[in-house]
Amino acid sequence: MSASTVVTLLAFGLVSTLLDTLIVGGLLIWDLGLFLYNLVAPARRVGTVVLRGHPGFGGNWPDYIAPKESDSRCACPALNAMANHGIIPRDGRNISFRHVTSQINATYNFAPTFCIFTSRYIAQILGRSFLNDTFDLEDISVHNGIEHDASLTREDTYISTSQARPSLPLVEKLVASATGPPLRGHPSTNGAANDAKPDASLDRTLTLADLARISTKRRADAAKSNSQFSLSTIHKIFGSSNSATLLTIFGGHLPTINTFLTEERLPSGFESFIRKPMGLTMMQFNATVLPLELSTGGEVEREWRTLF
C-alpha cells in the first residue's frame, strides 16, 4: 500500500469520525430541545397518542398475522410486533432504515431523536448507510451488536442460535416477577381485555424494582449456564433500555406486556403511555434506564447480606 493511499485512508477516517461526532452532538442538542418543549407543551389527549393517518390511531391496529417460518424476525419484540401488524413489511425483509425510523416514532411515540440515533447505530453495526440501505430483521440479531446475553426474553445464542422467537419460559418468569398494584384509568389497560377473557393472575404492574431483581437473577443464571457468556457495559445498558421500555411505553401494565412479549402483538386499544407531544426523548428515557441499571445487582447483594 502506497504512502498516498495510507494518507487518504487516514484522512477519510478522520473526516468520517468528525462527521459522526457532529451528527451525534446535533442529535443530543435536538433531544434537549425536545425534552424542554415537552416540559411546557400540553400532552396529547388520551386516545390520540398515535396520530391520525398512522396505523394504530385510536387503538385500532392493523390485523395481526403470526410470522411464517420463511419470514425474517429478530431479537427485538417491538420491531417484530410492527412486522406482525404490517406496519413494516410483514416478511421482515428489505426494510429501509429511514422507514423503520419513522414508524417506530409513530407507533410507540419514541422521540425522533431516539429513533434516528438507534437506527443509525444499527446501520453502523451492519456497515450500511442509514440514508440509502435496507436490512432484514434477522440481520440485527448479530451477536453482541444490539443483541446480547442475559436477555429477559431470549435464550443466549450459546443456548439457542435463533433469536427470532421469544423464549416463553423466560417471558413467564418475567411476568411472574411483577409485584406492583393493578393499573387503572388508561385506555391501554383495557387493550388486552378487549382481545380475550381477562386473566386475574395478570392483574398486576411491573415495577423498576421487579425488573432489577429479575435482571440480576437472569444475568447470574446466564453466566452459570453459558460458558461463552459476555456482557459488556454497553450491553448491560442495552438490556436495561429494553426493560425500561416496558415501564415507559407500556406503563408496566402486565396484561399488555404479556401479550406483547409472548405473541409480539399490540392488543386492541393499546397506545403508548408516553403522551408527550415530541415523544419519549433520550434524556427522559435515561431517567429510567440509568436507575434501573444501577439497581441491577444490588437487590441480590442485599439479600445475600441478610444471610450473614
From TrEMBL:
Record region (Disordered) = 179-199
Q: Which residues cross the membrane?
A: 6-30
Per the record, the domain of life is Eukaryota
Its EC number(s): 1.11.2.1
Instruction: List keywords of the entry alphabetically.
Output: Heme, Iron, Membrane, Metal-binding, Oxidoreductase, Peroxidase, Transmembrane, Transmembrane helix
**Class of this enzyme:** oxidoreductase
Q: Heme haloperoxidase family profile domain: from which residue to which, for each copy? A: 60-287
User: Which PROSITE patterns does this one have?
Assistant: HEME_HALOPEROXIDASE
Cofactor list? heme b
Q: Which residues form the signal peptide?
A: none
PANTHER family in the cross-refs: HEME HALOPEROXIDASE FAMILY PROFILE DOMAIN-CONTAINING PROTEIN, STERIGMATOCYSTIN BIOSYNTHESIS PEROXIDASE STCC-RELATED
- What family is this? Belongs to the chloroperoxidase family.
Q: What is this protein called?
A: Heme-thiolate peroxidase
